Amino acid sequence: MRPFLFLGTRAEDDVAQQEYDAVLAGTGLHPDELVRVRLEAGPLGVPDLDDWSGIILGGGPYNVSDPDERKSPDQHRAEAELRALAERVVERDFPFLGACYGIGVLGTLPGGVVDREFGEPICALPVRLSDEGRADPLFGILPDPFDAYLGHKEAVSRLPDGAVLLASTDTCPVHAFRIGRNVYATQFHPELDAVAICDRIDAYSAHGYYEPHEQESLKAAAREAMVSEPVRLLARFVELHARA
């Protein structure tokens, strides 16, 4: 099997490792089958898509809607590299699954708008599938609705040209979409369990996702949530796209 490529943008080593480990577990892949590149640490270059079965992009603290002057040089570089990659995978309809930050990467393609209108606090919420989501080969394996962990400052307020809406919450109209047949973005985090989201709440306490006094109550609510279904997307993505 050709390996899958995992792209991360988290500068915190422990959180970056936890995210990668969670995606490994969810996909059922071994490390040599899910090759990681940390974009915050160095250039991606121009990957040869023929070398890979598909690409998975993790989340992170970058927001495309941040003012340019507040973005670090690493963020500017990562955004440019991911924009070029997004254009290539859409043109070729190459298997791509972007979790959380995938919304920013794919949602800003022509016709799309990503802004701060539909941000949601860190929590678990029911996610509803659209008719297209229920019929989709990737999302159609999920129940409707399903609970998912999420927390984001920005979201898609207008879909890019040709995108198909797959899922929404009551407070965010675009939680997943597809371009072509094989290019996907989710706003929620399919890889997260209660332990991992609590660790991220701690790790990003200074990033403006919540007020300091909310930290322990957010973790308590996350532990009480029953989130089990979204991780199935990862194994299904591999099942659909693994190539010899």
From TrEMBL:
**Highest taxon above the source species:** Bacteria
According to the entry, every stretch annotated as the Glutamine amidotransferase domain falls at 51-192
Record-level Gene Ontology MF annotations: transferase activity
UniProt signal peptide: none
Q: Which GO terms describe its cellular component?
A: cytosol
Checking Gene3D superfamilies in the record gives: 3.40.50.880
Name of the protein in its database record: Glutamine amidotransferase
